[in-house]
Protein FAR1-RELATED SEQUENCE (Stylosanthes scabra), 91 residues
Amino acid sequence: MVLGYERVDRISPDYILERWSKNCVVNRRHTSIKSSYDAPVLQPRTKRYNGMISRSYTSAEEALEFEALTTRYHHVLDNFDAEMKEFKAKL
């Protein structure tokens, strides 16, 4: 706000920490969330993330109606987590 008020249009890259950049190498969850200033064409990783979140939310909403489905949902996620660990270990 202050920079806008003072009409500062550019800041030297020396003053911008890498962790503040969207191109930061660190893998953080919030970097996959679509924001209003994203490019019109989302990166493939972001598209996959959005699709997964949408499906997960829908499945969780339906499963919570019944204890048995909720238990099954958690069981499926646990199995998937184990598969992901195995897959990453092979890489």
Observations:
- The chain is about 55% helix and 0% strand.
